[in-house]
Amino acid sequence: MQSRSTPTRSDPFTTPVKPTDAVKEKKEALGEVLNGDRLVSAPYKLEFLKHKDSEQVCKRTLKKEEVAKFRSAVNKDYYFQMYYDDLPIWGFIGKVDKENKDPSEYKTYLYKHIHFDILYNKDRVIEINVQTDPHALVDLTEDKEVDVEFLYTVKWRETNTHFDKRMDKYSQSSSLPHHLEIHWFSIINSCVTVLLLTGFLATILMRVLKNDFVKYAHDEEAAEDQEETGWKYIHGDVFRFPKYKSLFAAALGSGTQLFTLTIFIFVLALVGVFYPYNRGALFTALVVIYALTSGIAGYTATSFYCQLEGTNWVRNLLLTGCLFCGPLFLTFCFLNTVAIAYTATAALPFGTIVVIVLIWTLVTSPLLVLGGIAGKNSKAEFQAPVRTTKYPREIPPLPWYRATVPQMAMAGFLPFSAIYIELYYIFASVWGHRIYTIYSILFIVFIILLIVTAFITVALTYFQLAAEDHEWWWRSFLCGGSTGIFIYAYCLYYYYARSDMSGFMQTSFFFGYMACICYGFFLMLGSVGFRAALLFVRHIYRSIKCE
User: Band of the pLDDT at 30, cuts 50, 70, 90?
Assistant: First the structure.
């Protein structure tokens, strides 16, 4: 049972009314448990093609405390969700009568009669709908004992819809023509604006670069001893390895793994694995693919660390393994403790935690080590088109807007503007329990995000080098990943302006897990930004002659 307005779920065992028969728990898959699903057998007997009229579920007297519990649940828009033959059904448990009344005169009612309307084709269940009888009500307004008889009715009707089309109804709920039209229009409008800006900046950058190449070629022919200026002047420092190279390589490895994970998830989504109400499929895929791609993180981090002439590759490997998993594990420990305190189904059982620890110990860690060993033995050398001088040049004084934080703000704004419209739909799906099925649009937006992130990082790297600032390694990573900070800022807006969340548990869950997601975005887009900047810097210094 869960609330429509908030992401809190209630364990069905904590509700005041329990059926007289013993309740059986359904064995959940890993993804279902991570999703907070705790399914139990319902007391309704829906036998195939057997009509029932006002069948009794149970009859009991609600105590004052139980009436107060139900009243609170009805006021918070709690609804039940059940599954019949893997088809989802849901309905509100009650209603609040507010019509033409002062708030002090509101009446709270509990529904006591449920109508099941089931459609079938031959021997297959095609569709199921549930309605609550608006006339069969129990008044819960006052704190007093109430006698209740819970009933249900079952009606079977034949349909011509084929079995393989029965899920189409749920897929179309988020892609109705008017929704889809607005969705596509807003996305196209956003993308055209961003691509025009990107194209405009690209044209300027290409023209400036062309002029630079012509100027430097002319200078070489005119006067060999003429003093160099601009980005050519720092050719002896531009490939000087960054500070904290172990941390840098670990961040690059973790970002590359998360990028690979995202691509795999998109492939599965586009081939239809995450169809509506395939319970827990996304969480299962995330856990399994993250475990299997840990070798990519180990290989990328260690091979790049060795290219940067690092010596302690074992420490680098440990840092790579903990860079993303460490903060995620600490956040999980805190939030799981909060969920246990609030008796919410978001609290993972001990058995599930053991399974995740075993996956990390037996799959993730060995693959990370194997990837690290392969990276160490790859013997790849860093490809620098120009020699690095023995002593670094001093960076000239720069204006405030060329500092790291203002540059990150400029770098993150343009990619964020390309995705912020789609962010609302994603947040509504994750935190508002709405169905999201338009993965094609999401994939297009993701591709545009990558292109814009790569280009804006390249542009800012060029302007940094033109100002004779050769410390571009960390700057390009931070500028590429700064979109993650903008997404977290959007979380604040969504929480206060678009959601009805409140209370310590909901607030901590929302901001805690969104911090981990945004941190993952920071690492992934940071690695994309650095890779693009590295290609660009190699290209421009390969195109000129440097002494």
Answer: confident
